[in-house]
Design brief:
Structural class: mainly alpha
Order of helices and strands: HHHHHHHH
Distance between the termini: 84 Å
Number of helices: 8
Low-confidence stretches: 2-14, 182-187, 189-210
Helix content: over 70%
Largest sheet: none
Mean pLDDT: 82
Amino acid sequence: MRKLSTALAATLALSLTGCGYNTFQTNDEQVKASWSEVVNQYQRRADLVPNLVSTVKGEAKFEQDTLTKVVEARSKATSIQATPELVNDPAAFQKFQQAQGQLTGALSRLMAVSESYPSLKANQGFRDLSAQLEGTENRITVARNRYITAVQSYNVTVRSFPSNLTAMAMGYKEKANFTVENEKEISKPPTVSFDAVPTKPTGPASGVAQ
């Protein structure tokens, strides 16, 4: 009886290995690690926003609507609990994408508007925060691309034979990924330029104290 149980266990182990069970475990861990890095970089960006907004507020007559949209977008983005389980829920993942995309758009608008305020661009604190923001956006792009690759590998295992049989038996399903349309929207970091390029006929900034 003991020999029979051992033989069954060995057969089961070989069967699971041949059907991709171990591959699922490896790929799933890679997805989790990649997702954690995405979340960390998005949080890094969110942490920069309060100081950035505070610095910009010091500029007289700066577009308040632009600042309000940044604050609202940050609030929405940080209100979503980006747990590892979120990647298994396409609707929740899409909501996360949209919230982060809105924050990216709001920040890009803020950086574009800042071009009209020479005294703000000359502010060392603003320059430092802008550089940190640009660096963080680049890190987000790298982290997101790694996540995309990890999810693609996992999802291929889910769909391929014979590992798809293991997926059905064990309840493994495809994970949500960043969409191509969303990638185009959020893959470009905000353009940060300190060359004086006036975009308004009249500017309120030249005589404003910092």
